[in-house]
Amino acid sequence: MKKTLLIIITVFITACGSTKMKTDRIIDEKFKLCSDIKYDRLITVFYPDEEKRLITENIHSLFENSLLKQGHLTDISKAGYSNLLGKIKRGEVGEESTKKFSQELSFNPVSLFPDSYFTSCYAELIEELELVNEQSWQYQFRDAYWKFEAEGDLNSDNVNQVEKALQLIPAEKFKEIAYRKLFLDLIYMHLR
């Protein structure tokens, strides 16, 4: 009897964990699809040049690489980004970093770094698809980021709010560029 009960409990726990992993994977897929579609629209409208397609499709990763080469970003992690945001607030990183990046590319990519463009993907997960609720990190992140936008910018004391939003993203998710794009947009637009 105890063995049977133990087997039933084990199966139930495994099934629940498996369902959560599948749900997380679906949420990630939907978020990335939303991000990719929005970005593809930007490229099509502002940079339709097929010769630069590989560059424009990977602009965030390339900007991140440039920040690493320039020594402004020390690590592709939440800690690295937190450190970079602090440097920006203290004025240690300025417009020269985006100018150098534009020179590396041989064109000005400003239209590929829209303010808050990707927050709508969080809204889609929450409001349209109803895949996440108020307890999810995505919901809490969206609200924290919106509060940051409403109350200031990286030069204000409100930078703590964007730091709070950054810390809400799980470290495993932050390893994916899709979850860093919003911060790279914010950083690029602030520095230019």
UniProtKB/TrEMBL annotation:
The lineage of its organism: Bacteria, Pseudomonadati, Bacteroidota, Flavobacteriia, Flavobacteriales. It comes from Salinimicrobium oceani. This is Lipoprotein.
